[in-house]
Design brief:
Shape of chain B: elongated
Radius of gyration of chain B: 26 Å
Strand content of chain B: under 5%
Oligomer: heterodimer
Radius of gyration of chain A: 16 Å
Number of helices of chain A: 3
Distance between the termini of chain B: 38 Å
Largest interface: A-B, 10 and 9 residues
Number of strands of chain B: 0
Largest sheet of chain A: 4 strands, antiparallel
Shape of chain A: globular
Chain lengths: ~120, ~425
């Protein structure tokens, strides 16, 4: 069973982080990646640039409309994701709880719609 | 009702949850499990008059429901493989019963009964609370969607959609059908206990005029509580919850007067309490306490037992109850628990001691807008004969109280402490605990 783990947290908090905190956070992600890879859970995942670098795209009446910004203005923003292969939701919840951002942000666990 | 109908009705109450639980495990399909269980009961009504009532109705129903699932799956080409699996599972479990086959129901925590798998899945925290409640009533309790909708005062279509969504999420998000492993068990057990207690409270809040289905939620919750306590003999909180529900339910007949107003505990007619239920509640609580692992349900049950076993309101051991509230506050730190403790302390050590606790609570800014806070302070000031302060507090409470019965009570007390009134009221402080 595959799940997408969407990592959401407050970008302004991340932006205000000092270099030491930033390094600590990156070390946390490295540790998470190693553990989940060795468990055979991790299938992929990336960190995303902040929403200030986001562009939304829509096509209406054949016209491509692009605009600055994310698709929704919220307190927390999507900052990265993992794709994991888990036994069931309980395992996916356990994996999500170990993502460093779970401690200050929110992880959304979404089952992947297998085609 | 003839003998067969009575036997089917009894089997429905006793076996529905067990049959559905087993069918979900063997088919992996919640809707199919429910439909085939329904069919099995319809078949029982047809067959039992001619064939006689089987010696083990549960085993008969499970086998019939399984065969029905197998037939339906066989006709369904897409389901052919799964039907094979179902057949394999069925032969492993043996045809003679859901609870005695070698492969039947040993959960991941070593607890064996499909109903336990079912209740833990229904109460999974990834489901919304209202969905957990509805799913538990439907699959374990066998209530129809229409009955559950009536009990929760929502349109049937809303309830049907809630159930469909919950079952869909279980399937799509792969919520496991199992008793959680040991490291998840305490948290998940708390969720199961909370769902059952919520069911009970919904029924308990229903007044005499309410729909019978709604009032029936208490009996349903107690039935589920009994099942859970039997299935989890090592969980004293399951026994604690059962004891708590039995002890509250024992007073159900006396807690509302003819006008539909709640009768305070000290004014209830204790001869109207159900002695057998109190006895069972106390015995259940004792069995829980013997395990030496207290928890919030056991402590609440002990408080309820303290009230239920006092033959007159004046015989209540308030010092003990105050101590129990102190213990409860450690498990469930909340301002409401603190307020109840203050009332018990006032009864045990006098109104001044209680007042000090209430004033401390108000000083902390807890419970803003909660009328029982100034109402309790008012009652204590009245008992101390500090009338002008009591009157001011009653007015404060009146400004916040929304319920007519509460307003009537507060107005009556306000009149007593107002300058034109004569002697102070002799009656003790109003018990603010659950009535």
């Amino acid at each position: 069973m595959r799940y997408l783990l969407l990592i959401a947290n407050d970008e302004s908090v991340l932006a205000a982080m000092g270099p030491e905190e930033g390094q600590e956070m990156m070390a946390g992600y490295a540790e998470f990646g190693e553990e989940m890879t060795s468990r055979g859970v991790l299938q992929g995942g990336e960190r995303l640039r902040p929403t200030t670098d986001a562009t939304t795209v829509q096509v209406r009446n054949g016209e491509v409309l692009s605009a600055d910004g994310p698709f929704a203005e919220t307190k927390e923003q999507i900052g990265g994701y993992y794709v994991v292969e888990c036994q069931d939701l309980d395992e996916a919840i356990e994996v999500a709880s170990k993502i460093p951002a779970a401690g200050n942000g929110t992880i959304e666990v979404r089952p992947i719609w297998e085609m | 009702m003839d003998e067969v109908e009575a036997a089917v009705a009894r089997a429905f109450r006793e076996e529905w949850g067990r049959v559905v639980a087993t069918l979900i495990r063997t088919t992996g399909d919640w809707d199919l499990a429910e439909e085939c269980t329904q069919d099995a009961f319809a078949r029982a009504l047809e067959r039992w008059p001619a064939d006689g009532i089987p010696r083990h109705p549960g085993a008969w129903l499970t086998t019939t429901a399984r065969n029905r699932a197998f037939d339906r799956r066989r006709r369904d080409a897409v389901g052919a493989v799964k039907a094979q699996e179902a057949a394999v599972n069925a032969s492993v479990d043996g045809a003679d019963g859901p609870d005695d086959g070698p492969g039947a129901g040993v959960g991941d925590s070593g607890i064996g009964d499909d109903r336990l798998r079912l209740i833990f899945t229904c109460c999974h925290p990834a489901l919304a609370l209202d969905a957990r409640v509805a799913l538990t009533l439907r699959t374990l309790g066998g209530l129809t969607t229409a009955e559950i909708a009536r009990a929760f005062l929502v349109p049937e279509a809303t309830m049907a959609q809630r159930l469909v969504r919950a079952k869909r999420k279980i399937r799509h998000a792969a919520i496991p059908y199992r008793v959680p492993p040991a490291h998840l068990l305490p948290e998940r057990t708390a969720s199961v206990l909370a769902v059952i207690y919520l069911l009970f409270n919904e029924g308990y809040a229903a007044t005499a005029g309410s729909d019978l289905v709604r009032r029936g939620l208490c009996a349903e919750a107690i039935r589920l509580g009994r099942t859970l306590a039997r299935l989890m003999p090592d969980e004293p909180e399951a026994l604690g919850l059962l004891a708590l529900m039995l002890l509250h339910d024992a007073r159900r007949g006396t807690r509302v007067d003819a006008a539909g107003d709640l009768v305070p505990l000290e004014d209830q007619d204790r001869s109207g309490w159900d002695g057998a239920a109190i006895e069972e509640g106390v015995a259940t609580l004792d069995a829980a306490l013997r395990r030496g692992e207290p928890g919030p349900y056991q402590v609440q049950a002990a408080i309820a037992a303290g009230h239920a076993t006092a033959s007159r309101a004046a015989d209540t051991d308030w010092a003990e109850i105050a101590g129990l509230y102190r213990q409860l506050a450690r498990f469930l730190p909340s301002a409401v628990v603190e307020l109840n403790r203050a009332v018990a302390v006032a009864m045990a050590d006098g109104p001044a001691a209680g007042l000090a606790l209430v004033e401390r609570l108000e000083g902390s800014g807890a419970l803003p807008g909660y009328h029982l806070l100034p109402a309790t302070r008012a009652d204590l000031l009245r008992r101390l004969d500090r009338r002008p302060e009591a009157a001011a507090a009653y007015r404060e409470a009146l400004a916040l109280a929304a319920n007519d019965a509460d307003r009537r009570y507060l107005t009556r007390r306000l009149d007593e402490v107002s300058p034109e009134s004569s002697a102070p009221s002799p009656s003790p402080v109003h018990n603010r605990g659950r009535s």
